[in-house]
Please model this.
Amino acid sequence: MEIRALEAKHFEERLKLSEYAFQFKLAPSQREQDEQKFRPEQELGAFDEHGQLLSALTLLPLEIWVQGKPFAMGGLAGVATWPEARRLGCVSELLKRSLELMKGAGQTVSMLHPFAFAFYRKFGWEMTVERKAYTIAAGQLPLRKATSGRIERLAEADSALLDQVYAKFASRYTGTLVRTSEWWSQRVLSKPGHAAVYYNADDEAAGYVSYQIENRKMTIHELAVPTEEARTAIWTFISNHDSMLDEVSVTVASDDPLPFLLPDPRIKQELQSYFMTRIVDAEAFVSQYPFAAGEQGEALELVITDTHAEWNNGLFQLAFDADGTARLTKAAEEQSGSKQAQAAPQLALDIQTLSALLLGGRKASWLAEAGRITGDSAAVGLLERRIPQHKTFLMDFF
Model:
């Protein structure tokens, strides 16, 4: 088996594999468009000795917000294998190689949408993003309230305008994408329907909603409301459609407070486990992560287990400065061996748990109670003090 990047000549072979694995068929016009957009350098394949493609994945160079800072992220998508090549280790080798490529590209974190959470947990990814899906009957929509601004429906989608609002909203969460103009045009604004922007009293774009109305149902593609004023204005706009609708459906962040604000909060709600995340390069990631400040410098030892990225595997010192910057330093092999022989480390955890701590909003104390972190309780408390509480969200799919 050989793992290597695809070439332009592999478009048809890659498309046939995807169509088979994901059970779809592209129309000829869409096929031509996809061929024009095909970027073989973002496609990684496993080939047999005859050069036949056995398995493939797409590795997207993206950025996400983490604690209000943009981080380079490798997005994995389209993982597919021909049935006759399954259980030959193709995907395992592709994922291992993708981790090496991401590390080399400075992508310290990776995200994916799993077909099975248990499968990708074996390779170090962990569930980090949950979302809520609402279905709201017309009679349960929020009460209409006056605000000091105005709503304007866009005659033509304006990605620069929408991105101003989106960035303010998305940067409050961990896991949301930093969107490029290409992402807006190809992935967001290509959806059918309409968009409306809320302008506040200072005439600043302060919220937006994109949506489609069909068969007396409003499907909200995106709802970006960085302030409560924007939330009130946008939901009043939605409620003004009540004579046209039987129901509204929308997917929001897990911390969305809408039910509490409704006259009748017993709307249909579904909590959805959505995306998985993995720290690719723990040392580089920690050096960029904005930890909470403390009264003084502090340190602890971690033994991290990562069977698919050896650079993350072993004994580390995690040192915090008073201002919240930190360094994760791997012990030398001989020091690691002698340390572990002399005494147990302060804390031990696997790469999934570290990802859940820093990217999934899970508290150190709870992870210790659940048996995912073992070791000294004082060190658990130190971690909990130094990791700011954060919420996760992702409005996109890849």
